[in-house]
Predict the structure.
Amino acid sequence: MSYRALSVEEAIEYVKEKGLFNRESNVVSREIGDGNLNLVFHFIEQETGKGLIVKQALPYARVVGESWPLTLDRARIEAEALSLEGKYAPGLVPEVYGYDEELALTIMEDLSRCTILRKGLIERNRYPRLAEDIGRFLAHTLFHTTDIYLGGPEKKAIQRQFINPELCKITEDLVFTDPYFDAETNNFNPLLREDVAKIWQDNELKLEVAELKNRFYTEGQALIHGDLHTGSIMVTESETKVIDPEFAFFGPIGFDIGAVIANLFLNYAAQQGLTDQAACDSYRGYLIDTVKEVWHQFEQNFRRLWEDKAADFFVKTPGVLDRYLDRIFADTIGFAGCKMIRRVIGLASVADLESIEDPAVRAEAERLALQLGRGLIVNRRAFTEIEQVTDWAAASSSVSTAS
Ligand code: SR1
Ligand code: MG
């Protein structure tokens, strides 16, 4: 079948034809995609309750429409990345049952028992497994795709599979460029005009963003997920699943860790909308603890993997691992800052902030997000421990609340 975007009826026909359900079964489907790019079909077989997901790439960015064409190859990248991630972090990604190159679709495990983490955080839920699972996911998927583990030639053979120029370009533009000038795609709260204009004039900040952008361009350190915000994580009380690696490519490790931390801090900033101060403080405490724990879990797992499995000539040289991790830490903090600023100024905001109805209250939360984002970027080399970062964030937000 040559490519066409499936209707719900065609999708049901497709999964039956593939033998995923009996032809006679009563299969009900809904298109549930709420992301920026793709169609997502959810199927339920009425007789058995068996569920299934089919994710189909559209030949354009759904959030903008057909005027923004986009490669279908991202469906292949996603299917192949899920398979590698599943190998190194078993249980932490959905199971893939099939990939159809012509239709640019992936057939995968139904995760409807899980909640999108962003939604769960907006509802102020707490997830006991989250930090440990995400730290493990990061360490295992990233370590096992470095040169340090694979060796140069094998790493490059895999890297070839994940050349992803169009999706990288989206990040280069939307994260590292457009928020720093009056780009047409930007979309920010009009009450922030003065704050945003200040950022456009802020050469100290732009110098640092230029450096981080250059690291994103050039640091092919490991196979990164590439879009690991809280909409790409699904959770229950007892499990965590990372979805949607269509932006995957060989990039800087800190970009993935920074994405997780940025999105926890964005929710932290969005608590500004809460009138119940005790509830705000308590949930912020939980978010801060999660930020710290994600980093610690990543670092502990990564150190263990390095000690057990690293193969490079220099791995036992004293100081090499510490220096490698220091670099990842500074990248993490800087990229987290970039990812916060883009969600306030650029295209594709986040529901944590958007769901604050009063524009003036929302502006307060967005100002805090900008202030934290800027601080993370320009101070990233001065921070040496995650506790310094979270203490600084907590102190900045209490000043911002008081003023
Ligand atoms: C046009 S795509 C906009 C954003 O959605 C994705 O989730 C990525 O974050 C991208 O930057
Ligand atoms: Mg996505």
The chain has a mean pLDDT of 96. Residues 35-37, 61, 63, 170-171, 174, 227, 348 surround 5-S-methyl-5-thio-alpha-D-ribofuranose (ligand 1) (CB under 6 Å).
